């Protein structure tokens, strides 16, 4: 999918895990290795948002994993969500998650969940997720909340 947004056109596509590492390292990992367990599993879905078909300005990963807080037939976890500060608020994050939800529904998912950083809870709420836990600490990052979105079953 694509959305028109100054300073350029954002498009979302599937990429290899390694393509997501520079932005992950810069915005999420802060000195820790960019790899996350399961990155190279065949069922892991990595998406990137490109600016004008070139530079990667947003990344996210989806993979099947039981949800700690909700029963579901086919739950998937969202991880590694980040956009470049230069494009924040322009729809790249929304476009990445929307494309991911469409693709995981096609693979049978009925729920997507995430450990949402406290500062990102408002973003996830804005794009359809619901808070289902209180605050919990995930070191070394800090406070998080559990969030879920239920998906239509195909
Ligand atoms: C959270 C993050 C991914 C949002 O990306 P983004 O590209 O700014 O998202 P979008 O522009 O698509 O925003 C979609 C909507 O959410 C809103 N929004 C974005 N970030 C928000 C936030 N932190 N709190 C509240 N609302 C937010 C936007 O204003 C927009 O609202 P609209 O529907 O009125 O247009 C980005 O700020 C980021 O990478 N943060 C640092 C890393 C991080 O915390 N990742 C999440 C880890 S759980």
Strand order of the largest sheet: 1-2-3-4-5-6-8-7
How does the overall form come out from the CA principal axes?
globular
Q: Termini, distance in Å?
A: 20 Å
* Estimated radius of gyration: 15 Å
* Number of E-type strands: 8
Give the oligomer, counting copies of the same chain as homo and different chains as hetero: single chain
The molecules bound to the chains, other than polymers, are: coenzyme A
Q: Helicity, in percent?
A: 10-25%
Global mean pLDDT: 94
What is the H/E string? Answer: EEHEEEHEHEE
Strand fraction equals: 35-45%
Count helical runs: 3
Number of domains: 1
CATH top level class name: Alpha Beta
Query: Major sheet: size, sense and barrel closure?
Result: 8 strands, mixed
Q: What would you note in describing this structure?
A:
The protein has 154 residues and is α+β, with helices and mostly antiparallel strands. The protein has a single domain, classed as 3-Layer(aba) Sandwich (Aminopeptidase), CATH 3.40.630.30. It contains 3 helices and 8 strands, in the order ββαβββαβαββ. The chain has helices spanning 21-29, 92-106, 121-126; strands at residues 2-5, 8-14, 45-51, 56-64, 75-83, 111-117, 130-138, 142-150. An 8-stranded mixed β-sheet has the order 1-2-3-4-5-6-8-7, with helices on both faces. A hairpin with a 3-residue loop joins strand 7 and strand 8. It is globular. Bound molecules: coenzyme A. Coenzyme A is lined by residues 27-28, 81-83, 87-94, 116-117, 119-120, 122-123, 126-127.
């Amino acid at each position: 999918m694509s959305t028109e947004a100054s300073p350029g056109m954002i498009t979302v596509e599937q990429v290899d895990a390694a393509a997501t590492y520079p932005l992950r390292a810069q915005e999420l990992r802060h000195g820790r290795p960019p790899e996350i367990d399961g990155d190279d599993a065949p069922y892991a879905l990595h998406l990137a948002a490109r600016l004008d078909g070139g530079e990667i300005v947003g990344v996210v990963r989806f993979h099947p994993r039981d949800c700690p807080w909700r029963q579901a037939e086919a739950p998937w976890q969202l991880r590694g969500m980040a956009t470049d500060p230069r494009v924040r608020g322009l729809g790249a994050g929304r476009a990445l998650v929307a494309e991911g939800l469409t693709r995981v529904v096609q693979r049978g998912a009925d729920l997507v969940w995430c450990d949402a950083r406290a500062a990102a809870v408002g973003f996830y709420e804005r794009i359809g997720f619901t808070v289902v836990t209180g605050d919990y600490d995930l070191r070394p990052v800090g406070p998080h909340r559990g969030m879920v979105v239920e998906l239509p079953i195909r």
